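Title: Prediction job returns without error message
Component: structure pipeline
Severity: low
Priority: P3
Assignee: unassigned

Description:
Job completed but the reporter wants confirmation the result is attached to the right record. Sequence as submitted:
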Amino acid sequence: MSARPSRRTIATAPRSAQPTKAVAAVVAAPAQAMALYEQIKDHISRKIQEGIWRAGDRLPSENELVTQFGISRMTVNRALRELVEQGRIVRVAGVGSFVAEDKPQSTLLQIANLASEIRQRGHDYRCDVLTVERTSATLEVAAALDLRTGESVFHSLCIHREDGLPVQLEDRHVNPRQVPQFAVQDFTLLQPSEYLVRNVPFDQIEHVVDAVMPTAEQATLLEMSPQEPCLLLTRRTWSRGVPITVVRCLHPATRYRLGSRFRADGNPVAG
């Protein structure tokens, strides 16, 4: 970081050899399948995401985390090291660990914010969340997320509207190992795509565009004729080689266009 981290220290739980009630909540039933270091990462990440710990705040020391959670120093060190690699925190030798300053994702391809695009045109945007559930991965979804067929995944289905007219059907599957809190989010406040971009660091992205005909169900949801063609954008994102999400975004071809502008070196044009 260019600026010196703030020295405001975050209050920690009392020292005790036994895990506290707060710790018990972290290792509740849904989290028990996670490795211990992942539970520490999830605990710290949620505090940052919820705004309890802000940029520049000093985190508890390794020793304090060891005592608070009743786990080994090696486990805590791994959790902090991976948070540094993900850009969530910074560590200053001899001083401590701090919440990192917010910075934009750096990717080869950008993920467009549909809500912002629509509002910039002066139009009304609305997202209708139809489904948020835990389901079994089909063969196709399992292959996309590097999971076993039938393994548990999160699924969401949304309709994005511009001035009340559907312009995108978003059919998303999310790897619960990467985003364990996905299904408990309030997507009436922050739609799934924006939540993932803001809160789950990714370093690879894949876009594939196809021309397709909608199914009868898709045509009904998009309030269009099943004889009209659609543009299908399939997107996958990864973090350190592990898939985060695969999403199929279906657009009526008469209502939406997909496009990008790049320089000769392959970088997107700003603005």
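Comment from assignee: result matches the submitted record. Residues 36-49 form the longest helix (14 residues).
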